[in-house]
Amino acid sequence: METQQKHLNIFLLVLSPLAAGAVIWAIAGISWESLNSGVLAIAGLTVFSSCFLRIQLPRVNIHFTISDALIILAILLYGGEVALLIAVIETTFASLNIRRQGLPLKTKTIFVNVTIAAVGVFVANGAVKLIFISTQPTLKSGDLPGFIWLLFVMAISLFAVNSIGVAIFSAIKSARPVWQVWSENVVDAMVMYLSGGIMAGLLVKALEQLNISMFAAVVGFFGIMFLTFRRFVEDVKKSVEKAKEAERQRAEDAEKHVGELKHYIGELEHSGEEIKRSHDRFRHAAYHDALTGLPNRNYFIDTLRELLHKGRESSEYDFAVLIIDLKNFKTINDSLGHTLGDQLIKNVANRLRNVVRNNDMAARFGGDKFGVILKDLSLGDEPTIFAERINKRIAEPYTLDGRHVFTDAKIGIAYGNSDYTEAENILRDADIAMYYAKDNLDDCVIFDRNMHVRAVTRLQLETDLRFAIERDEFELYYQPIVGLKNADLLGFEALVRWNHPTRGLVPPNDFIPICENTGLVVPMTVKILRSACTQVAKWQNSVQSKHSLSVAVNLSGKHFAHHDLVDQIREVLNTSGIDPLSLKLELTESAVMENAEAAILMLKQIKETGVQISIDDFGTGYSSLSYLHRFPIDLLKIDRSFVSAMETNVENTEIVRTVVALAKSLNLKVVAEGIETLHQFHQLRILGCDYGQGYLFSKPLPVADIEMMILNDNAQWRDLLPSRPQVMIPENPSLHLHIVNSKVM
Ligand code: C2E
Ligand code: MG
Ligand code: MG
């Protein structure tokens, strides 16, 4: 800053005396008589043009004005002294005018401008004098090249001094090299000085001719030229301004756009994070069970897929799948309510979580079904040991809402191997093994191929069964029920068979469980009931017997829970016309004991229809004696397993004796199933059993055979009666008190 000021001072120090000298020289040398109206006109015009007719050339920092032409003209016409003073006045006024228009032009700058202008004219005048001694002879001589050369020297001198002076001043102020400032900002002004020279020359020549119209024409021509040029420059300036404005607008727009973009990107980043968060939430929900938080089936299957893929690549399958199903969960859920049911599931899930290793996976598939993947297995029996551990852990009691609840698990295991291409298949096989465990009352079963064959067969049977009802493929066989006292025919048990189109006669134990699982058991039983009742009603009418024939029809536990059952019984009784007392509905012990309180209500309703009720397979379930006396039943059917073992096992005889005694104490009749030998027959008679059925009397037979039997011989089993009368002695002393109807037969 200081050096800048120093340079400026030096510049002014050099310039000021030069300018002062020049002005003094001008004032001293001027002949005041020569100051005519022409001088005043040029002076006025110069100031006016400089102030008001200046054109700012676009893109360069130069003002175009005809004042330079007028200064040159003044030199030519009135000499350097007059021209110098006009230049000083003109520059002063022009600078002040610029400041008036609002441009921050310092006085120092105005002073520099004025001094440069003064020195410029002085130098130009001097240069011309030096070259041409005087301007007048050249002008008068009519030496055109000399004249042009003179104009050139004058214009260039003016340009040189002005441009160099301005360049030095600007260079000092902007701290840039003089040459750079001159070449970049000032050199363009040369055109103006040259055109000023030409213009002045033309004006001089016009005046020389003293032809006022010629002068006017030249002035007019330049006037028009000037105005046209000014308009052109204005237009150019406008378009430059417009372009600049557009550019500025574009820049602003771009800036705004960048701002918006940044904002948008920010928003995007924000919503991206939100999306990621909700994506994570969705993913978690899609792969986890809501109740327990364990992985769900989808997650399980995906993990299995990965393991199978890894196995294929390394040819090593070191994992196993376990499917775990809880026993009795439905009963717990139904009796204790869903809230406690859910709590139990959560507890089981926690236990599973604690039992599996970090690397393994425990999942819930819904309901009471869980899955475990055991990985990195090294020993073959690891899964079985693990399954035993799970079984033990799950079987420990649970405390739910202050109650102790028990459950245990059935587990199916399938090992990963190269036969599996689909994850679903290994899961299916573990499932099959689990069902196998359920059916066979095992805790844990490892899958083998035969199970799959059986499962497929079962599936096929399931499909076939759906058509069996429509196609009427069920056939009833009847097994005679015999009064043990006199060995006479008292009725039948209706036992269903399935006449399968390709398999032949399928026994009920092979398809009834499937019917129960698929719900087909209800329509099937209604059909059986109707057909059995109609059939027996027909036989009742045809047989002249002192006993009316009865028919026992088996009811499935699943049907027993059906709300339409009572209406269905009524409807069958009505349509068949059978006496309700002749119909005995057989329910297994487990079916009524599953939900004893509800069973009592249901049994009462059934009893209101007038039919009789037997408890089938008695002794195989876990009957509670406290309930038994509350059940409105008529008969107990002693299970075949006790009867068949009577001969060899004394204990069984005791059981049969106890059941008979119990029945008598409850005023119930007793039927013995599976009587195959005379000994059993005679034993049961001694024990006081009322009725019996078994191969000793007859196997279950089709309708035609039974009809033959009824027609042919009414006393066909009399021969089986003992020749000597037998005495029935109750041998269990603890039951003596309860036995009411002990008789001598
Ligand atoms: P259940 O009701 O206990 O029927 C008695 C079963 O014992 C019958 O087998 C019968 O053929 C068999 N049986 C009778 N006496 C003897 C004998 O002296 N020795 C041997 N070894 N067996 C004898 P079935 O007909 O195979 O029926 C099996 C089970 O299928 C029935 O046991 C019953 O629970 C069910 N069932 C049969 N028909 C129906 C039906 O129409 N509806 C329902 N829900 N279940 C039925
Ligand atoms: Mg039965
Ligand atoms: Mg039975």
Keywords:
745 residues, alpha/beta, 8-stranded mixed β-barrel, 5-stranded mixed β-sheet, disordered C terminus, binds ligand C2E, binds magnesium ion
Q: What global shape is seen?
A: rod-shaped
Strand content: 5-15%
- Radius of gyration based on Cα positions: 63 Å
Q: What's the number of helices?
A: 26
- Mean pLDDT over all positions: 86
Describe it.
The protein has 26 helices and 19 strands. Strands 10-11-13-14-15-16-17-18 form an 8-stranded mixed beta barrel, surrounded by 4 helices. It has a 5-stranded mixed sheet with strand order 4-5-3-8-9, sandwiched between helices. The protein is α/β, with parallel strands linked by helices and 745 residues long. It is rod-shaped. Helix 6 (144-174) packs across helix 7. The structure holds ligand C2E and magnesium ion (2 copies). Ligand C2E is lined by residues 479, 494-496, 507-509, 512, 525, 528, 554-556, 586, 616-617, 640, 673-676, 693-695, 700.
In short:
With 745 residues, the protein is of the alpha/beta class. The chain contains 26 helices and 19 strands.
Task: Explain the layout of strands and helices.
Layout: H1 2-29, H2 37-52, E1 55-56, E2 63-64, H3 67-100, H4 107-132, H5 135-141, H6 144-174, H7 178-186, H8 189-208, H9 212-287, H10 297-314, E3 320-326, H11 329-336, H12 338-355, E4 361-366, E5 369-374, H13 382-395, E6 398-400, E7 403-405, E8 409-415, H14 423-439, E9 444-446, H15 449-470, E10 474-483, E11 488-500, E12 504-506, H16 508-518, H17 521-542, E13 550-555, H18 557-560, H19 565-576, E14 583-588, H20 589-593, H21 596-608, E15 612-618, H22 625-628, E16 635-638, H23 640-644, H24 650-665, E17 669-672, H25 678-687, E18 691-692, E19 701-702, H26 703-712
Helix pairs in contact: 1-3, 1-4, 1-6, 2-3, 3-4, 3-8, 4-6, 5-6, 6-7, 6-8, 8-9, 11-12, 12-13, 15-16, 17-19
